[in-house]
Amino acid sequence: DTVKARLSPALSDDERFMLMALNEAKKGEFTTRPNPAVGCVIIKDNLIIGKGFHPKAGYPHAEIFALNDVKNSGQDTKGATAYVTLEPCSHFGRTPPCASALIKSGVARVVIATLDPNPQVAGKGVAMLLNAGIAVAVGVCEREAKELNKGFLKAMATGLPYVRLKMGISLDGRIAMQNGQSKWITGELSRRDVQNLRAKSGAIITGSNTIIADNPALTVRLPDVELDNIGTTAIPQPKIVVVDRRGKLSPDDDFTVLKNPDTLIWQDDLPALLKILVAKYQCHDVLVETGATLTASFLSQNLVDELIIYQAPCLLGATARPMFGGQFERLQDKLNFTLVDVERLGDDVKMIFLPKNL
Ligand code: AOF
Ligand code: ZN
């Protein structure tokens, strides 16, 4: 690691401060949706004079918390530089435009990690700052900033959510025994990691077979988070969607997810479902947790952005249920993936793959 550190080029001041702003932004990772997680630090003479993040939709944006932080400590924003992980907004939404607040504060320079594709903003924030004579730089730590708000950025740009499909599998690629028994194949740490995946998802999609076999709650069971700017906050529960192609479920069946009036039972058309999740419910990050058949539909219709596999060191045998219900005649028809991350979680391995689109 020391060798690597010596070989990698030193971070510029702009990058260093933007990474701090990104650390601020991450504090709101589980609570801001449908809004993006955004952080801001304000620097003068190479010192941090204020910082803040967006905690939750309806609350002030990151820039406002950071500007107030400067004021509260009796310092002055005149001539300072603001580092913001997303283009400051230019519109009156639930809150007034941050670009105006920055202009009023007298900052001399604004450094932005990535532009806001929200059509209400989309470059107008930068234009407002430039028109006011503020120096603006865009694209510092852009990759890291985009990583943090994959769902928001994709949904704003395309109207479709960022879809993660997660599976817990055995060494032989099985997800349950023939009788449906599956508790537990993966270990404690993997299951805790899945809680984090759920916590950043606006919706969880599953299938009626999974509901009938396991009666899962599909809830986030993480403690409330302590946000340093607004106090203790519960993580919102994702919306549950049950794809029930053959009409096996009726709304008054005795399954846990059906007791929740917000649960959506959906018949078939998956692309239409994804569009509605963004347009009607503002679910920008979607997690698919389901069995072999629905998994095959999502993958073969090319609807998955990221495949997340937790693989446990056990063999469940040839009669256990496979992870993927699709079938191909010829080897060249196989679905291919690119491995982008591997992590050890106790005795399990977590792997993240991107589908290689045909
Ligand atoms: C910023 N700073 O910290 C965030 C921004 O309804 P509102 O008023 O909360 O506006 C939400 C929109 O503002 C959201 O869709 C995104 O475009 C932008 N988010 N902008 O300047 C922030 N969270
Ligand atoms: Zn704003």
TrEMBL record:
Cofactor mode of binding and number, as noted: Binds 1 zinc ion.
GO biological process, one term: riboflavin biosynthetic process
UniProtKB keywords: Hydrolase, Metal-binding, Multifunctional enzyme, NADP, Oxidoreductase, Riboflavin biosynthesis, Zinc
Record: residues binding substrate: 182, 198, 218, 221, 289
Binding site for Zn(2+): 61, 89, 98
Gene3D superfamilies, per database record: Cytidine Deaminase, domain 2 (3.40.140.10), Dihydrofolate Reductase, subunit A (3.40.430.10)
Chain segments annotated as transmembrane: none
EC number: 3.5.4.26, 1.1.1.193
Domain CMP/dCMP-type deaminase span(s) in chain numbering: 12-137
UniProt key word NADP: yes
Catalytic activity: 2,5-diamino-6-hydroxy-4-(5-phosphoribosylamino)-pyrimidine + H2O + H(+) = 5-amino-6-(5-phospho-D-ribosylamino)uracil + NH4(+); 5-amino-6-(5-phospho-D-ribitylamino)uracil + NADP(+) = 5-amino-6-(5-phospho-D-ribosylamino)uracil + NADPH + H(+)
Cofactor dependency: Zn(2+)
One Gene Ontology term of the molecular function aspect: diaminohydroxyphosphoribosylaminopyrimidine deaminase activity
Active site: 63
UniProt-annotated binding residues for NADP(+): 168, 184, 210, 214, 291-297
Family: In the N-terminal section; belongs to the cytidine and deoxycytidylate deaminase family.
Task performed by this protein: Converts 2,5-diamino-6-(ribosylamino)-4(3h)-pyrimidinone 5'-phosphate into 5-amino-6-(ribosylamino)-2,4(1h,3h)-pyrimidinedione 5'-phosphate.
Name of this protein: Riboflavin biosynthesis protein RibD
Species classification: Bacteria, Pseudomonadati, Pseudomonadota, Gammaproteobacteria, Moraxellales
Gene name of the record: ribD
